[in-house]
Amino acid sequence: MTTSSLDGQKMQAFAMQMLAIFNNGLVNLIISVGHRTGLFDTMATMPPATSQQIADAASLNERYVREALGSLTMAKIVEYDPAAKTYRLPPEHAAFLARNAGPRNMATMTQFTALFGQVEDQIVEAFRNGGGVPYSDFKAFQTLMSEESAQVVNATLISGVLPFTGMVDRLREGIDVLDVGCGKGHAINVMAEAFPASRFTGYDFSEEGIEAGAMEAQVLGLPNATFVRKDVSTMDETSSFDLITAFDSIHDQAHPTRVLANISRALRPGGVFLMVDIAASSNLEDNALHPLGPAIYAISTMHCMTVSLALNGEGLGTAWGEQLARQKLADAGFTHVAVNRIEGDIMNAYYVCRKD
């Protein structure tokens, strides 16, 4: 194949696309640094200012701040006045970068790029020889997930998500609740604080997560929150809980089919399973217009699929999708499944599952 036989316009368009990918990938790292150092939080509260003024206000090194602002200016994230040599973070941009933006804060997501880069060599090896990268090799994953999910949990769990289940009145009266794959347990503690008459238990195989959840519960004074280190694929409870939740944890499981069956068995008659998972289709072509389509499959390759395959699991991946989710829920005995969405949440679907 010679260059002369190729579509020149298509080549040029793809070259520009690749340049954008390269530029944006590196800017992604600068945004992550800006989030972690509090740079955006500081700029969100300031009028136009010099790099020295911004650095002083944020307690950061001016030389680093100035260079990062150069990247952010080129990326049209920060505005620059060359006459005054001042920088400004527009409020419309701060609404998606500052910590007080809550669930809109997209800067938290940028931290995953560096994290996944740390296991790239192992992923390359898995491409060649199969297998996967174990969860334990993702050193900061649980911390980053906790930060990102807490934004959504704090803003929507009590007022927006739990009403989907129809269990709010019963939660006020007092029921038994289990969270499967609870991570650092923040969702458990938010519910335990809101519904003191109910009893909440979190299961996770991460010792770090269980300890963090228990510590937060202790600090908040929540005697109704309990955390247990457990592989949820080994759950053997029968008719023990009135409400079971799983926040973005089922598709990561090595044996999700078994876990869903265990959850079904553990529910009492009239109980509800709330499964929060990725809003996507099981069909690749249906996700072409998904605003996070490229990211979903990339995250799956670099984490969700590989941690399951590392345990010889099913490797569902992030984009297992609604069709496969419904099939597996039906196989587990859930005869009634409703899928709900929350306005502004482009990532998650909220499955409310019941049995006859």
Task: Give your account of this protein's structure.
- The chain is an alpha/beta fold and 356 residues long.
- It folds into two domains: 3-99, Arc Repressor Mutant, subunit A (Orthogonal Bundle); 118-354, Vaccinia Virus protein VP39 (Rossmann fold), CATH 3.40.50.150.
- 48% of the residues lie in helices and 15% in strands.
- The protein has 14 helices and nine strands.
- It has helices at 8-37, 39-43, 51-58, 62-74, 91-94, 111-117, 120-129, 141-165, 168-173, 186-194, 207-220, 256-266, 293-309, 321-331, and strands spanning 79-81, 86-88, 176-180, 199-204, 225-229, 241-247, 267-278, 336-340, 348-354.
- A seven-stranded mixed β-sheet has the order 5-4-3-6-7-9-8, sandwiched between helices.
- Strand 6, helix 12 (256-266) and strand 7 (267-278) form a beta-alpha-beta unit.
- The termini are far apart.
- The mean pLDDT is 95.
Give the gist of this structure.
By secondary structure, this protein is α/β, with parallel strands linked by helices. The protein has 14 helices and nine strands.
Q: What characteristic shape results from the CA principal axes? A: globular
**What integer is the average pLDDT?**
95
Helix content: 40-55%
Low-confidence stretches: none
In CATH terms, the superfamily of the largest domain is Vaccinia Virus protein VP39
Counting structural domains, the number is: 2
Kindly name the structural category: alpha/beta
Q: For the largest sheet, list the strands in their spatial order.
A: 5-4-3-6-7-9-8
For this structure, the CATH topology of the largest domain is Rossmann fold
Strand content: 5-15%
